[in-house]
Amino acid sequence: MLDIKFIRENPSKVKQACKNKQVKVDIDKLLKIDKEKREIQTELEKIFAQKNKASKKIGVAKDKKEKQKIISAMQKIDKKGDKLKENLKKIDKEFETLMYQIPNVPLNDVPKGKSEDDNIVIRKVGKKTKFDFKPKDYLEIAGKLDLIDVKRAAKVSGTRFGYLKNQAVLLEIALINLAFDVLTKEGFMPIIPPVMIKSDKIRGMGYLEQADIEEAYYLPKDDLFLAGTAEQPIGTMHADEIFEEKNLAKRYVGFSSCFRREAGSYGKDTKGIFRVHQFDKIEMFSFCHPDKSAEEHQLILSLEETLMKLLKIPYQVVHICTADLGNPAASKYDIEAWIPSEQRYRETHSTSNCTDFQARRLNIRYRDKNNKLKLVYTLNGTGFAIGRTLIAIIENYQQKDGSIKIPEVLQKYVGFKVIRT
Asked: Which of 221, 345, 354, 372 could form a disulfide with 328 if both were Cys (CB 3.0 to 4.6 A apart)?
């Protein structure tokens, strides 16, 4: 969430940020409630002072009558205080509800836009793959090679699920090994996190407001959410903790299964494994010094590009506009891989700078050289979304005879160079 002091001092800026992100929040109502809240708190402080003063008078009262008079006055003060506390509790709830709805403020260099159509391509890397035959889509290729089975998955689990089989499984493991080899050398600590998260923690990450809750799988009996990405359990692991400034940036690379309802994707990518309810993903996460966040964001983006370049898959980097940012992010880049059968680029990676938005909710701070406690900044970025990366490999490395070449960088992990019948 944002700092209420910042909202008080910059109401126009916050209103514009909400407008740019297409989020409806009544900032004027919030500020009115905030004022009422502070007025009640001031009154309660006065009552506390009055009670403190009265308590001292009881100790020096000359007789029982004077003491009873003071006690009666204190009882009246208590009744007034109880009523104020009740009002404060109600106002606090309204205040918190509105505060949690306010999105992060986009950074100044984020493109303004009304939809994903206003995202800006900032560079293209690699030449689009060309063939001397008509390329097939990944499902057709993978079906003939017995790599992906969505029909049996539908029988077992319903739509938007798939079985990875045979060499596809070995390719997944190879991608995991490649990502961990590259990223641990860059100072990212490897981690496999839990994939069930307490509701207060996932709320702290900023994913339960607006439409995000529709994406989540929730277990009401246990008050636990299934992780939509390893970012969520990694980002919350240091809740209520304090880093030493010298230990920043603290970087993690996590592997996990991820679960999403894809509630807003009706009619989109209904076949195959591009948009599914369960998938595996490697995720980078960083807790960093506020002054270093822009540099850290570029580092994460550069590592995503390094992984794509190692696979030699053509891609483009996209600067995400305000309307497509999501609540927690202040800045975001996507990487989109070239998919020959569709003749277009599709998203495989994203990286976001969430500034102190998540850290404030989760109370994650650092101690600076002057011994002052300040909020860290949090950033995340995709290592590999396994299913989508497999799609990009299958399509870009397909051969005329229906076989698939293995990217050279993965051959040492899988022990073969081609997948064929």
From this structure: 354
Q: Report the interhelical angle of 27-60 vs 11-20 (nearest 10°).
A: 140
For the chain, how many structural domains are there in total? 2
Give the burial string for 221-237 (b: 16+ CB within 10 Å, else e): eeebbbbbbbbbbbbbb
Residue 111 domain flag: no
Task: Give the DSSP letter string of 189-258.
Answer: EEE---SEEEHHHHHHTT-SSGGGGGG--EETTTTEEE-SSTHHHHHTTTTT-EEEGGG-SEEEEEEEEE
How many whole angstroms from its chain centre is CA 280? 16
Q: What is the pTM of this model?
A: 0.91
The first and second tokens of residue 314, run together, are 């053509």
Residues 73 and 127 placed together within one structural domain of the fold: no
Domain boundary among 71, 101, 131: 101
- Sign of the CA dihedral 393, 399, 403, 408? negative
Q: Which residues have a Cβ under 8 Å from the Cβ of 114 and sit 6 or more positions away? A: 22, 323
How far apart are the C-alpha atoms of 353 and 217, rounded to whole Å? 25
Please tell me whether residues 322 and 247 are part of one structural domain: yes
Q: CATH no. for residue 399?
A: 3.30.930.10
CATH number reported for the structural domain that contains residue 74 in this entry:
1.10.287.40
User: How far apart are the C-alpha atoms of 235 and 237, rounded to whole Å?
Assistant: 6
369 and 260 in a single domain? The answer is yes
Q: Tens of pLDDT along the chain (421 residues)? A: 899 999 999 999 999 999 999 999 999 999 999 999 999 999 888 888 776 776 665 555 556 666 666 667 677 777 787 888 889 999 999 999 999 999 999 999 999 999 999 999 999 999 999 999 999 999 999 999 999 999 999 999 999 999 999 999 999 999 999 999 999 999 999 999 999 999 999 999 997 775 567 788 999 999 999 999 999 999 999 999 999 999 999 999 999 999 998 866 667 776 888 999 999 999 999 999 999 999 999 999 999 999 999 999 999 999 999 999 989 999 999 999 999 999 999 999 999 999 999 999 999 999 999 999 999 999 999 999 999 999 999 999 999 999 999 999 999 999 999 999 8
Q: Which domain holds residue 10?
A: 4-101
Residue 184 phi, psi (nearest 5):
-65, -30
